[in-house]
Structures are given as C-alpha cells and as structure tokens.
Design a protein that fits this description.
85 residues, mainly alpha, 4 helices
Length: 85
C-alpha cells in the first residue's frame, strides 16, 4: 500500500483502482512479453535493413525495447544466464 492509499484509507475515502490500458503489457505473462519484444524487434530490424540503415541490426532491437518499455513490460533475463562464462 503506497502513501496515497494509506491517506485515502485513513480519511475513510474509497480507493479506486485505475483500469489497465489496452496497450499495456503489464498484466500479460513473461512469455507474451518476450514474444512481443522479439516480434517487434524483428519487424523493425527488417524495416531498417530494407532502408539500408548502417546500424539496422542494433537499431531494430533498440527501438523495440523502447516501445516495450512504453508498454510497461517487465522483461528481464534470468539470473543463471548471467553466470554463464
């Protein structure tokens, strides 16, 4: 419970929750979030490659990651994958 909820509860006000927007991926599972990220990354990479951009293989995933962050995803890499050396 955050401070706003505590103040509302203390004052006797009814707390209302905001609905999740349609574009938000926050409530989706990690598999859906990763699938969307990889698919959007591939689309942008192919688009940038057809435009002959020099760094298309880097820019495609970067634009996809920015869009994913805007859609409130929580995509992360598992800890054991960091230990591979």
């Amino acid at each position: 419970m955050n401070n706003v909820d505590r103040r509302a509860a203390a004052s006797g006000a009814v707390a209302t929750s905001r609905p999740v927007p349609l574009w938000s991926l926050r409530s989706r599972g990690w598999g859906v979030q990763w699938t969307v990220l990889v698919a959007v990354s591939a689309v942008f990479t192919v688009l940038f490659e057809t435009m002959n951009l020099p760094a298309a293989l880097m820019l495609g995933p970067m634009v996809a990651a920015m869009l994913a962050a805007g859609c409130e995803t929580s995509v992360g890499v598992a800890v054991p994958l960091f230990r591979i050396s």
